[in-house]
Design goal:
alpha/beta, 286 residues, single chain, 2 domains
Length: 286
């Protein structure tokens, strides 16, 4: 199975005209030949953060609030209840602070949500751009593609996990064997992806867009289910060999400083084994 790495600029809609929260930078992601997005990372170059947060988040202690609170602690900032929907308290982050934001978002143990919710993290309220109103999307591509609802489509292309699972940092692992291609080449990986992006560029009809999203979800559902099944196979295999293999190291002609890191070592990279199984299962299912 082939892996591809794509880099494309992203920006907050109406970046030059807005006085509210805004950002711009680059999005990199890894995909396989089916157009399934395996992992992604963001590198912002500019961030104007809103210190105001929706009042109800303080009261309900939402997941979004807790995630934002953790980021603010790292930035040395405090969330402030938003007086009303139209009020903003914007802070332009310096390079060090932007680096903290990038590292936070790209660390799966800290940020385990969607790319669309990156806007939520920085704004302190719920982002626009749901399928029912695609024209209000806030995170868009900065490549003149007019794909204003890219964030919604992107999240539908990402491999789904069960509620008990979390997205792991696999970007660097997959990057090792990934071929760099253009965003245009990514769009043309298969007809389903191509038709969706073509539709995004010419139509603002929410009903039609919702239909396209449903088609994409159906198309990728079988791949997601296969990956979940493979995850279970990998987990069982690792558990079996972890228990059965003698946890000792063969005597070597030199001393190891840290023997622990060589114990129960994997003979084959798990991500490569996983992809081999996925490929075989897809071929069997036709």
């Amino acid at each position: 199975m082939n892996f591809y790495k794509i880099k494309t600029p992203i920006i907050k809609k109406n970046y030059t005209n807005t006085t509210s929260c805004k950002f711009k930078g680059d999005l990199e992601f890894i995909t396989n030949e089916h157009g399934i997005i395996l992992d992604w990372k963001i590198s912002f170059t500019k961030v104007f953060l809103d210190q105001y947060t929706t009042q109800s988040w303080f009261e309900k202690k939402t997941v979004a609030f807790a995630r934002r609170e953790e980021l603010f602690e790292e930035l040395g900032l405090k969330q402030i209840p938003r007086p009303n929907d139209k009020n903003n308290k914007i802070i332009e982050l310096n390079k060090e602070q932007i680096s903290i934001v990038n590292n936070f978002i790209n660390n799966r143990s800290k940020y385990n949500s969607t790319i669309k919710n990156v806007v939520q993290l920085l704004k302190g309220n719920n982002p626009g751009g749901q399928a029912k109103n695609p024209g209000s999307a806030e995170l868009i591509l900065d490549n003149n593609s007019n794909a204003n609802v890219f964030a919604i489509l992107f999240d539908n292309l990402c491999l789904k996990k069960t509620q008990k699972e979390s997205r792991r940092n696999l970007f660097d692992v997959y990057s090792i064997s990934a071929k760099e291609i253009s965003f245009e080449s990514f769009v043309n990986l298969n007809s389903t992806l191509k038709k969706a992006f073509e539709y995004m560029q010419v139509s603002k009809d929410p009903t039609g867009f919702k239909i396209y999203l449903e088609q994409i979800e159906t198309y990728y559902k079988k791949h997601n289910l296969v990956v979940q099944e493979v995850e279970k196979i990998i987990k069982k295999a690792r558990s079996k060999y972890s228990v059965n293999i003698d946890n000792t190291i063969t005597k070597l002609p030199f001393e190891l400083k840290d023997k622990a890191q060589f114990q129960k070592a994997h003979i084959i990279d798990v991500h490569k084994l996983k992809m081999l199984i996925i490929e075989a299962k897809q071929e069997n299912k036709g």
